[in-house]
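Field guide to reading this record: the first block holds the primary sequence, the second block holds the structure written as discrete tokens, and the final block holds curator observations. Each block starts with its own label. This record concerns Glycoside hydrolase family 19 catalytic domain-containing protein, catalogued under organism Apibacter adventoris.

BLOCK 1 — SEQUENCE
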Amino acid sequence: MQKIVFIALGYAETRFRLLGEDLSEYSSSKSIYKGRGFHQLTGIQDSSGLYNEAGPYEKYADFVGNKNIISQPDLLCTQIHYAIDSAGWFWTDKTNGKSVPNWSSASNTEYIKFRAEYFSKALGKQLNEVSHLVEEDEKYFWLQAKMLNGYPKGQKLETNPYGWATRKKAFDILKNEVFEFDKRCKGNEELEFTGDRAPWIVVDWKEYEKYKSLIEKQSPLKEKFILVYVLTLSLVFCRGQEKKETIEYPNNKSKEIDSTINLKK
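BLOCK 2 — STRUCTURE
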């Protein structure tokens, strides 16, 4: 479920192609530290209303040992490793990542009391931990999406997260069609393959027949490769979290992973 949620929300934020926030009516898009990366890491709002204080960018730069991220924030767009990894860091880091507040059910403020009671199992948990609760009740996926985009004071459930229809559709497709979560993770019967080939071989062959005459560095095949690369890195990140693996980060630019695919457009 952690994989499903992480990828679904990443898709909603980027459509697997736009890793930097486009200029729009939103103040964040006009800021130095606008939304970037797979989960659109965003800076801190200053007195002008723009997100020109590094905030999470600086903390992530410290985490990976690359101060260039502060002066060159577009690294989170152009370096695909940072694009995915910054989202994973924001999703899981116990000190600087995103967590559900410890709202109090004893509060005299109505909306705080409501949130504390309605989302009681998620209080104080990181967004990655909340994914386990989604298995029991999908209202917690709604909460994750809301926390990722902002849950303004005073709101209960009256306003859905930004782009909710896209987020929910991506979640449903990943859960029911790609990962077949209920069948593979909740079912008791052992899965068996039918036919002469494993099912993914059939899919691979269809893809080959469809794209075999195209050049991989040109559209539309180029976008297909980028999609697979982003999905693979996302799954590798999630797998690393499950195994509690330690990831070694480069301390200087010469040793960075060679992943300079420009995904800003």
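BLOCK 3 — OBSERVATIONS
The first helix runs from residue 2 to 14.
The chain has two domains: 1-97+194-265, 99-178.
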